[in-house]
Design a protein that fits this description.
The chain is mainly alpha-helical and 320 residues long. It has two domains: 204 residues, Cation efflux protein transmembrane domain (Alpha-lytic protease prodomain-like), CATH 1.20.1510; 92 residues, Alpha-Beta Plaits. The chain contains nine helices and three strands. It has a three-stranded mixed beta sheet with strand order 1-2-3, covered by helices on one side. The chain starts with a helix and ends in a 17-residue tail after the last helix.
Length: 320
Amino acid sequence: MHNNGMQARTYLRASLLAAIIVISLKLLAWKVTGSVGFLSDAMESIVNVAAAAFALFIVRIAEAPPDADHPYGHTKAEYFSSGVEGLLIGVAAALILIEAAKRLTHPQPISDVPLGAAISAAATVINLGVALWMLRGAQRLRSIVIEADARHLLTDVWTSVGVIVAVMLVPLTGWLWLDPVIGIVVALHILREAFSLVKRSVDGLMDKSMDDADLAGLQAVLDRFRSNDLRFDHVRTRVAGTRRFASMHLHMPGGWSLQRAADCRYAVEKALIEAYPGMTVTIEMLTSAQESLQEENAQLQATGTISHQVCTPGAPSHPH
C-alpha cells in the first residue's frame, strides 16, 4: 500500500508539473491571438493545477494505515478527490459556456492564428502524453485518484483540439461565430465527463460492489470449492479506492471437526486473495442447514415465531 502511494504521488506530481507548463503555453496562445477560445482553454487548464494539487493531498490521506477511528483504512478519501475534480471540470465547462456566449453575441476578429495554434498544439501534445501515461498507471495501481486526474487531462485535450480547429477555421471562412460555437460543443462534452466522475465518487462512497468482470472472477474462484458438502451464499463485495472487500457465508456439514472447517475456510480465503491481491475477505462458517443470526431474525420477523436459545454464554454446552 505504501509503495502504491509513493507511485501515485509520482504520477500526480508529473501531472502538476505538466499542468503548469501547459497553462503557460495556452496563456501565451491567447495573448498572441486574442481568441476567447484559447482563453477558455487556458482557464480549463488552471483547474487542472488545482485538481492535481488536491489529488496529491488526498493520496497522502488515503495511504494512511488503519487506526482506532478508521479500522478499515482511509482509502475512501480517494472518492472525494474524484468528486472534487468532477465539480471543478463542471465549473470550467460553465466558464467556457459563459465566455463563448459573450463572444457569440459580440463577435471579434482574431490575429496571428498560425502561431497561436502551434503553441496550443504543443500544449495539447504534452497533455495527451501525460494523460495516457497516467491512465496506464491508474489501471495498474487501481487508483481512482490517478484515473480521475488522467481523464481530467483528456477532457483538456478534447477542449484544446476543438478550440484549435475552430480558431484556425475562423480566418479561413470569415465566420467569427465559429470560435464560440465550437467552444460550446466542447464545454458540453466536458460537462458529460464531469457527471461521470461525480457519479463514480458517489458510487464509491455508497459502497458500490465490484464490477461485473471482477464479480464473475470471484464466483469462478468459489465454484472451485462448491460441492455436495460446501455451498456459498450471501456473497457481498464493495470497493473503497484501491481496496476490495468480500464477505460471504460458507455452509458445511455440521459433523465436520473445527480443524477441518477452519482449513476449508483458510483455503477459500487464500484462493480469493491470490486472485485479488490485497482483498479483505470475511467468511462466516455455518452448518449446511444453518443461517446467520441476522438471517434468522429476518425470518422470525416475517413469520412472527420465537427462536430457541441453544447456547448460553458462560454456560457448558452439555450440562450434566
